[in-house]
Specification:
The complex is a heterodimer. By secondary structure, chain A is mostly helical. Chain A is built from eight helices and no strands. Classes of the chains: A mainly alpha, B alpha+beta.
Chain lengths: 168, 503
């Protein structure tokens, strides 16, 4: 039976992963108060749904983020609005990459808004790799695809992003 | 060039840029044919890679944590108050007369327990709901453990856990989770790597731990393999092979921790092929090479200086061209009748011949002038035993390597309890008791031995290949045990005749 030991274990998982779940939700929403509510709720739902979890070999945090993502979808549905552009999401890029960004005529907010327009697996792969920090192997396991397929999706997603940014 | 090629290049460039191995410009320069197309995509990707997601405030983390703990506590209380609902007992059963309800509830409890849907995280198995909690906690513990020795020990505990889980899955008739079992090897390699960061004295307890864990794994996996369905055999065999290599690494590194600098891996299939034993007179020590009769051990790293002219028994591992001596004992025994003191005995896995067939590689060392038998062919993995004298080398025995045998235990025989049929070995610093009272004991030639005969070998290094092994408490029991003495040959006909009444 689930007991105190498991509660302690799950609390440690919370300590380990709360930053990553929060960062993911914040990238998608940006409103700090709502981000906090959704992050907190994601962990509570995960605890309640533990017996439904199926180990696919993907990191446990990928499952937590999936739960948080579903809450984000509900959030936008309740708000009756599309995911909106925001300017406050991103912190400054690392100094060594500012030059590349400047040359590409990019800013973090524009890039984030373009990412939010990606659909399906392209959106998932870009979010998981660049925002959530998963490796190709981990993404492949989470999405049940080969690593080669993930690299193909990433390549195409970046192509789509380029087109979206060029239109803006 | 296919589209996939560009996709792989882009992915590799991103990995290299993130690791600081390369800049965007350097990546483009390395792939000029795609530079134009890749440039804008890489700029985008680098921009995304630079994103630093927002972090929550400490105040929020505390608040959310408290709420989570409260939710879990409340759920536990609810479970205590309403166990029927938690077990999925339909509400209508609560209207049944008490005896009927009690019987139904009892049945549900049995089904729930037997079906194994809910386990505490600590005892959960791969595929269980709480298993990711268990592995997640392991990850957190590793992250919180900063000391290399403690981290190595923790890795070994986790490696032992993975094998215990496979063992438990086998016993329950479940399929072994290949991916989870493979993690045992990864953790052992990490532990070995951590041990390599320690001073020799601090590494030794870790190596003792590795030895104990890998012996335990061999016993469990060998037993599981006997009963496993065909689909599980490859995974179990690989894990068993890894356990044997882990034990070999522990044994060699315990004797010479310098070998850890070569990053030995339990997944290295060639490891056993580089393990040698040579007994003979050290005829010369020149330029770091040892010559023992017509056996040449190059670039020797030995913790012990031994003067030329000494009759020795050495054992070691060849790694990256260097021979790490793990055991070097001066052999005080008298030569057998009819054999000169220039006799050399060599044992190791056959690794090939020189183009002119005049030199063989056995256990990673060079043996010149083999005769009497054709070299093994193709992929045959044979252990060669042979004797060399007067410039010639005669192969006396070819046999399958240890990979095809059961648990292998090597160490110094410290005690023999004849009435109890028990032998005790010191294996890389740890005491191991093996009850052989019911075992069929044989010598290296397969001739029967008694426990009493083993008594005369106390204090000597021995290798016990045991099969049909099981453990109870801290004692192992074997149905079959083959005993080799590490220094000099063990022949049932030659030893311990006065003890022949034992066992």
């Amino acid at each position: 039976m689930v007991g105190k030991l498991d509660e302690a274990a799950f609390t440690r998982l919370y300590d380990e992963y709360v930053d990553r779940v929060y960062g993911h939700v914040h990238y998608r929403i940006g409103n700090r108060a709502d981000v906090e509510d959704i992050t907190q709720e994601a962990f509570i739902r995960a605890w309640k749904a533990l017996d439904k979890y199926k180990d696919t070999g993907a990191p446990f945090v990928a499952w937590l983020i999936t739960i948080a993502d579903n809450l984000v979808v509900d959030y936008y549905r309740k708000q009756k609005k599309q995911e909106v552009p925001i300017d406050e999401v991103l912190e400054m890029p690392a100094a060594e990459n500012l030059e590349a960004l400047a040359e590409a005529k990019l800013d973090g907010a524009a890039l984030r808004n373009a990412v939010m327009k990606l659909k399906g697996d392209k959106a998932r792969v870009v979010m998981m790799h660049f925002i959530d920090g998963f490796s190709y192997e981990e993404i492949a396991r989470a999405l049940k695809k080969s690593e080669g397929a993930i690299r193909v999706i990433q390549y195409r997603a970046l192509g789509d992003l380029r087109k979206i940014l060029d239109r803006q | 060039m296919s589209k996939l090629r560009k996709e792989d290049i882009l992915a590799q460039c991103l990995v290299d840029i993130r690791a600081g191995k390369s800049t965007l410009e350097e990546c483009l320069q390395q792939h000029p044919e795609y530079a134009e197309e890749l440039k804008s995509l890489l700029q985008l990707a680098v921009g995304l890679q630079s994103t630093r997601p927002a972090r929550p405030s400490e105040e929020f983390k505390r608040r959310a944590r408290a709420r989570l703990v409260e939710t879990m506590r409340a759920a536990r209380e609810e479970t205590k108050l309403a166990p029927l609902e938690r077990l999925g007992v339909p509400s209508w059963t609560r209207r049944l007369a008490m005896p009927a309800a009690a019987a139904f509830i009892a049945l549900m409890v049995v089904v729930a327990a037997g079906g194994g849907t809910i386990y505490a995280a600590g005892s959960s198995l791969p595929g269980d709901a709480l298993y990711p909690v268990k592995t997640g906690v392991e990850g957190v513990r590793l992250a919180l453990t900063k000391d290399a020795a403690s981290r190595a020990d923790l890795r070994l505990e986790i490696a032992a856990q993975r094998v215990q889980e496979a063992d438990e899955q086998s016993r329950r008739g479940r399929s072994v989770n290949v991916r989870a079992l493979a993690q045992a090897s990864k953790h052992m390699d990490e532990a070995i790597s951590e041990a390599g960061k320690l001073t020799p004295e601090k590494a030794k307890p870790v190596l003792t731990h590795l030895s104990m864990v890998t012996l335990e794994q061999q016993v469990r996996l060998a037993k599981d393999l006997e009963d496993a369905p065909e689909a599980d055999k490859d995974a179990l065999q690989q894990a068993l092979d890894a356990a044997r290599r882990g034990n070999l690494i522990a044994e060699v590194a315990y004797g010479n921790p310098a070998v850890l600098s070569t990053s030995p891996s339990v997944e290295d299939e060639g490891l056993e092929s580089s393990h040698f034993k040579v007994t003979g007179t050290l005829s010369s020590v020149e330029g770091g090479s040892w010559r023992i009769g017509n056996v040449v051990i190059k670039d020797v790293d030995s913790p012990r200086n031994i003067p030329a002219g000494t009759r020795i028994a050495v054992e070691g591992l060849v790694r990256d061209g260097k021979a790490f001596i793990s055991r070097a004992e001066v052999d005080e025994s008298k030569p057998d009748a009819g054999q000169g003191r220039d006799d050399v005995e060599v044992e190791g896995v056959f690794g090939g011949t020189s183009p002119d067939n005049k030199t063989w590689t056995v256990g990673g060392v060079q043996v010149s002038g083999p005769s009497g038998v054709e070299p093994p062919r193709g992929d045959e993995k044979k252990v060669i035993k042979g004797k060399a004298h007067s410039g010639g080398f005669t192969v006396t025995q070819k046999e399958e390597s240890d990979q095809d045998k059961q648990a292998v235990m090597k160490g110094v025989l410290v005690r023999v309890d004849v009435p109890a049929g028990m032998i005790e070995l010191n294996v890389a610093g740890a005491a191991r008791k093996l009850n052989v009272s019911q075992a069929n004991i044989v010598d290296e030639d397969g001739l029967p031995l008694t426990v009493g005969q083993l008594e005369s070998l106390s204090g000597k290094g021995v290798k016990v290949e045991a099969s049909g092994v099981y453990s109870s408490g801290n004692v192992w029991y074997a149905r079959q045990a083959r005993v080799d003495v590490e220094t000099g040959s063990l022949k049932a006909k030659d030893i311990g005749k006065k003890h022949s009444g034992g066992n």
